[in-house]
Amino acid sequence: MRKDLAESLLAKIMDWSDDEKAAERAYLESFASYKYDEYQQFSPGRRFIESLALWLGQFDPGANRRAAYDFVRRRLLFISNNEMNHLVELTFPTVVRPILISDTAQALGVHPCRVKAIVRETEYRKRLRQTLVLGLSDGARTDWFRRANPQEMSNEQVFHAYDVSDAKTGGMVEDLGKHLGKILGRDATAEEARFRYVVLLDDFTGSGTSFIREDGKGGWTGKIAKIVANLMTAGNLGDAIADEGVKIIIVLYVAADQAIDHIEELLPSLAFGKGTIAFHVIHKLGTSTPLDDERDKAILSLVGDERYFDDDADDEHSKVGKASKQFGFAGCRLPLVLAHNTPNNSVYLLWAEEDQRVLGLFPRVSRHRKLQ
User: Fold this and answer.
1) CA 97 to chain centroid
2) What phi and psi values does residue 193 have, to the nearest 5 degrees?
């Protein structure tokens, strides 16, 4: 009954004819059940069609509401939990494993195309066990990564965060030495019992600034810069990795072109004295994803309308992006929603938080909550 009421309200708000209502109802119900209803930040009892009706109701009747609905119908990009999990599953076989195979082949002096033979070699199994996987945020889904590769990665070499305690680090190194002893058939040396590959996982970036940026003092800050500094410092993770020949492999499941360009431009300037840093993206959003001035003129006119923006959304964190969040953090202009939360790189109308005066279609829950 509640669903029928929401659909009736939506039809009234959009002033649809009976034929239009029938056609759009089939589309909306399909996508709501397939994806949109799984959005994790909807308030209790609310689902997509109710949220859509309320969201559209804040715009002027007629052209503005049609522009907003057309945006949802044709430009909204929603990445579901299943789709994100699939990207996680692709990470090891498409990024990590080929690197290990290539390095093993080079060490053994064989052609890397001999995959079956290489993965049976002790050298490959040693390098695989010398691989440490760390999550850069809750979105890294390290639990799913581990379960997707049960024959490849052990629990002792996958951790959900990059700020690892001394006790945990010591335990991982101790387990590494024990497992290498079984692989090598002898006690591992102190140098062997240290990690040579560090895989850093995260789900999404729109601008790349949270990963690496200049700190204004001639240095670097951001997630990548911090962990590289930790790996170069004595103690903790710094002692857990080898002194040389280490490869840091950064893997993002989804990234916008703006972020890719930003990271690829700055990363070569970040010094890592123990080895090299490589950057990989499983799914690139592409140049056609951000809203375009001509193609998306109608929705951009609403996004830029001050009636549909709450100044409270612009806080001290907006300064890092050097632009108002009205068009998305760092001006990313994305129409993107992730099942667990809407990134603030998307246009504000999509993610306006529930304590703000504008209604968001997929309200965001921010990591930086203001004190009331």
Assistant:
1) 21
2) -85, 40
